[in-house]
Amino acid sequence: MKENFIPVRFFTAAFAWSWLFWLPLVLVGLGIISLEGDALTLISVLISVIGAFGPAFGAYVSIRTIQGKGAFRAFLKPFFSLRFGWKTWAALFLVLGLSTAAAWIIPEFFGEHRAPMLLPGIFIFPVYWLAMVFLGGGQEEIGWRGYILPFLEKRFGRICGSLVLSVIWACWHIPLWFVPGASQGYMNFFGFLMLTTGYSFFFAWVLRASGNRPLSALIAHGTANAFIPVFPVVIMIPGAAQPRFWLWVSFTLVIGIVTTAAGEISRRRGTASGG
């Protein structure tokens, strides 16, 4: 296999799976299919969760067709390791929690009304957090950071590999701008691209800090999503100003750049001292 090989079949399968599952909701959003009320809510949740397994499906298709039967089971084994140290856990919750909380609270000092927490109570957060890690976005990382990122890094380098993935990741979400009730419909796409870029850098840093244990990326992604209803940073009202959103994506981008720069400096110092 070539050193710079990138399994394009991964992206084909990932996009096909997700976009096909999301298609009925897109048709509802475009007014082609009529569905509303509790039925729309139930179907939206179910389809959204299944659709988010697209990157995992892409990894399965790519591994199965390139490496053969049984290879995917071996690929999944590292995902069961939680041994990535308390510092990584602390960084996840402190960085993601504080940045989201800051974006949520700062606008109040400039006259914005407080955006109330969207969860029934903070007591439900542990259960909600687990749901986000395994069903609410975290599962994407089986494919993104768990499988395809190493290929992109070998081809483009660490920094450019994450940049390429951030653009692809943002584009993968495009159908959600047409899905009724999806938060993306209230976000500026360029701002969302800032978010995926910051997260791509930060999640890659978390992955390396954990000793390349891919479960850390699932936990990072799920934790990021879990904090959003605790500290709402997107006002889901058409035409509403979104100061919290812009602060949030800006903070996330800065965090991604800073952690990546720190990681690169540390790596080069280690290489220099080792040489």
From TrEMBL:
Domain CAAX prenyl protease 2/Lysostaphin resistance protein A-like: 126-227
GO BP term (any one): CAAX-box protein maturation
InterPro entries per UniProt: MmRce1-like, Rce1/LyrA-like_dom
Annotated transmembrane regions: 12-33, 39-63, 84-106, 118-138, 159-179, 185-206, 218-239, 245-263
Pfam family, one: Rce1-like
Any one GO molecular function term: endopeptidase activity
Protein known as: CPBP family intramembrane metalloprotease
The species this protein was found in: Breznakiella homolactica
